[in-house]
Structures are given as C-alpha cells and as structure tokens.
Design goal:
Alpha-Beta Plaits, 3-stranded mixed sheet, alpha/beta
Length: about 525
C-alpha cells in the first residue's frame, strides 16, 4: 500500500506571515471603527437624530468588537503549551461571545429609546447635510473593511475576523436604513407630514433589528465553537449555498466516505471533529483487520490523516485502530490471531476436515496441527499449561475445531558460542550427490559446515560435537512453495541418511533468475 502525500505543517515563517496579516487587518478595523464612531456620535448629538445616535452606538460596539478581535488575534496565535495543550484558539470564540453580549445590550437600549420617542412624540430633528455625508462615508468604510477582513479570514481561517467581516457588512444596511429614516423625517418636518416624523425612530428600530439578527448568528456560531460542535468548511465541489446544519452533515458524510474507501479499513467506529480558532482537530477510530502488520497499519493511519486533511486543512488528526475480525478471515487467520494476542509464534499450521459422530449424526469438524516456539529455558509443566490455554482459546474462537495437536519447539534464548565455519569437501560432495536425485534442484552452492564443541549448552552430554551444514539451493522460478517445501524436506531427510554425523541441514531456496553465481 502506498502512503499518499500529506499536507505539511506550516513553516514558522508562514505562521509569522499569517499572524502579521491578521493583526494588520484587526488594527485597520480598530482605527476605522474609532473614526466612524466619533463622526456618528458628533453628528447625532448635533442633529438630535435617534437613528444617528443608534448608529453611533452600533459603531461604538464595532469599536469594542474590533478591539476585542485585535486582542484575541494576538493571543489565539500563541503556540500550545503545557497548560493549553490544544493552543489558544478558543480565545477568538470567547471574544465573539463577549461581543454578542454587548451587541444585545446596545440593541435593547436602542429599542427602548425608539419606543420612548414614539410614545412621548419627542421627534425634533435639526436639519443638516452632515448626517448624510457621515453615513455615506461610513458605508464606504464598512464596505472596505468588510472585504478586507473577509479576505484575510478566509485565507487564514480566522473565526474572529470572519465574524467582524459579517458584522461590518450588515452595518452598511443599517446605515442605509438610517439615511432613509433621516430623509423621511426631514421631509415630514418640511412638508408638515406628521406621520413621516416617526421615520427616524423607526429607522432606529430597524438598526436594532439588524443588530439582534447579527447577534443571533454570531451567538449561534460562538456557542457551537465553545461546545466543540462539528465545524463547517467551504465545499468547493458544491455550487449551492448550504445551511450550517447541512454543511455539517455533508462534511461528516464526506469524511466517512473517504475514510471507509481507504484499502484495509473495515469500519469507521468513531469520528469526532472540533475547531479551536483557525486550527482543526479530529479523532478517528478505525476497524482494521487484526492480522494486519504494524507497518501496514501505519500506512492506513497516514492515509486516514491525509483524507481528513483534505476536508479540514492542516488538521491535527489522532487515529486509533481497533483489531477487527473480517468476514474474509480463514481458519488459519483466526488461529494466528489468537496466538498473536498472546504474543506467541506459531507456524506450519495444518487444518484438516474430519467427520465425527454427534447425537447419532455425523458432523464435519476440524483437526488442527501447529508448531509453537517457546523459550528454551521454559520448564515442561509451564510450556504444557501455556499450550493448554492457547488451545482452549482457539476452540472458543473457532467452535468447529474438534482437536488440536501442538508441537512444542524450543526457541533459542541465548547467543551461542563462536563456531568454526569452513568448507568440508567430503560433505559437500555427498550433499551434491544426493541433490542429483531430485529433478527440481538445478544447483547446490555456498555449502558450509559449522561445528561446535562438546560444551554447547543444548547438546546432551553424550554428544562430542554438533555438526550443521548450510547451503543455497537453486530451483525453477515457477515452482510452487508447497512443492519447494516438500523438496527441501526430502533433501534434508535423504542427506541425513547419507551423512548421519550431520545433526542439521539448513537450506536456502532461491529462484534460478536470482542465481548470480
């Protein structure tokens, strides 16, 4: 399995550039908000327009929000530490939450003042050109900073800047409502139309409504972020606008689809995603075949990380794997899985189907033969108990098993003493003579004889020397491994008859095309 390319972690200079861009956009927003707030407040006080004063209050909120955004951008980009393991991105969500509270409070005040003026008929306005000029200037500034903040927010995935961008976009509509209200009120005064004199407080109510609407949207996003709701991202494959709920469902569906499509993944047991500032985090639990190697499991993990990061850029992904029994598992796989759970090495597994009498009827069942390697220093009683428990667990795993025969082999636990490695022409000639009786064997080469003295730890006291012969054996490329094993076993048996003084023959089979002699 080839591991796909994974998005790399941003370099320190990239992170520094992103922080500078976000900070510059936030500073520009603060300066613009301060200028617009001062102009609106001064104009409102001079004209007595509640709509203008409400706009000044709205811009004052913008100034506070921009200041909070500037502070949050400064803090949110700080790296993770021992106390804040997931970084400081939540500061942006906290800043947005504070901004929401201030906006709701200001909208409440505007509604109260507007209703009071309507009820008390305190509707006097001072006609002037300046409110219109200030509001047009305000619309131009809001348009400029909304576009700037939106671009930087999309580029660097800043929640706080994105909220400010939306906020300032709605300010343009609020300013337009105040312009209409002021114009209608002036016309009411000039042409003695009392019903038009209510336009200014009504415009203030419209502004309050806009503030409340933006506050509701911002509150919803903020609460989702603080409660670690599933994040949403722009879907480049979709040309339609999706609601937040639809976007979350679509993101989750896309993630599940891509994860399940990874070769080797049997199931996606759990998928959790969260967002902290501009950073994404994902926890994924995958069901993998339990006979998968560690290296293959690592390749699946890398592929899963890449799949998540395609939808959540530069996400911090934690993948947990669960060994799972697949429907395609053979009896051999299930037996090996039991041994692997106990960290035991088994080989040469043979499965035979037999028929047995059960309740006066014959039922097919399985007979298992296997070889188990144990530490050469393990006492027989302990080895037998180990085998008994292993066989019992195998029967539970595969109920069709009727009997198991386990050959216990000793696994060397110590490094052997130095041995003499040399050529022995007589033994080599006898081995070659025996090999000629097997038509599959094309060549015998690199024959070496190893002899150890009578003090070898694993030799009985009656042995005076341990002799081992090693060789390379050339066979046809297309010979099946089952036949290769049979030929090697037969060659070993025949050679021991020819050379009984040899205790062990080790044969390395190799294909004819790999014989570089």
């Amino acid at each position: 399995m080839t591991s796909p390319a994974i998005p790399t972690t941003p370099a320190p200079e990239d992170l520094s550039g992103a922080h500078s861009a976000k900070r510059g956009a936030a500073v520009f927003s603060v300066v613009a908000a301060a200028l617009v707030t001062a102009l609106k407040l001064l104009t409102g006080l001079l004209t007595g327009s509640l709509g203008m004063l409400s706009e000044a209050a709205h811009s004052g909120i913008d100034l506070i929000a921009s200041a909070i955004t500037l502070v949050s951008v400064q803090v949110s980009d700080l790296p993770a530490d021992d106390v804040h393991n997931y970084g400081h991105g939540k500061v942006e969500s906290l800043a947005a939450f504070i901004e929401t509270g201030i906006m709701i409070a200001s909208a409440t005040w505007i509604v109260y003042e507007a209703i009071s003026r309507i009820v008390q008929r305190h509707l006097s306005l001072h006609t002037s050109f300046w409110p219109f000029a200030v509001l047009v200037f305000s619309i131009a500034v809001d348009f400029s900073r909304s576009r700037t903040l939106g671009r930087i927010a999309r580029l660097h995935h800043s929640e706080a800047l994105a909220a400010d961008s939306i906020h300032f976009a709605t300010d343009m509509w609020a300013s337009l409502a105040v312009i209409v209200g002021l114009a209608a009120s002036y016309m009411g005064q000039r042409f003695a139309l009392p019903w038009l004199e209510f336009a200014d407080p009504i415009a203030a109510l419209v502004v309050a409504g806009i503030i409340l609407r933006v506050s509701w949207q911002l509150a919803h996003q903020t609460i989702d972020a603080l409660l670690d709701a599933t994040p949403t991202t722009d879907d480049p494959t979709s040309g339609q606008s999706l609601s937040s709920a639809e976007a979350k469902d679509q993101l989750r569906a896309n993630l599940l689809h891509d994860l399940a499509a990874i070769p080797g993944v049997l199931s996606v047991e759990r998928l959790r995603t969260r967002r902290s500032g501009s950073s994404y985090f994902a926890d994924v639990t995958l069901g993998l075949p339990r006979n998968l190697t560690f290296q293959s499991s690592e390749q699946v993990t890398l592929a899963a990380t890449a799949a998540v990061q395609r939808h959540l850029p530069a996400a911090d992904v934690v993948v947990h794997t669960v060994p799972t029994a697949s429907l395609a598992e053979s009896v051999h796989d299930r037996i090996r899985a039991v041994a692997a759970r106990r960290n035991l090495a088994i080989h040469e597994i043979s499965v035979q189907q037999i028929s047995g009498l059960h309740h006066d009827r014959f039922h097919p069942s399985l007979h298992i033969e296997q070889h188990l390697e144990v530490d050469e220093t393990m006492p027989l009683l302990q080895a037998h108990e180990l085998v008994t428990n292993l066989e019992a667990e195998m029967r539970r795993e595969v109920p069709a098993i009727a009997s198991i025969l386990t050959h216990i082999e000793s696994e060397p636990a110590t490094i052997e003493r130095p041995a003499a490695l040399k050529h022995d022409r007589d033994l080599e000639l006898r081995l070659r003579r025996v090999a000629t009786t097997f038509p599959e064997i094309l060549d015998i080469h690199e024959v070496y004889v190893t002899r150890r003295g009578p003090h070898a730890d694993h030799l009985p006291s009656s042995h005076t020397e341990y002799t081992q012969v090693t060789c390379h054996c050339t066979l046809p490329d297309d010979l099946p491994m089952a036949r290769v094993h049979a030929v090697m076993s037969a060659l070993e048996g025949a050679f021991k008859i020819e050379a009984p003084e040899v205790d062990r023959l080790l044969i390395h089979p190799e294909p004819a095309t790999d014989n570089r002699r």
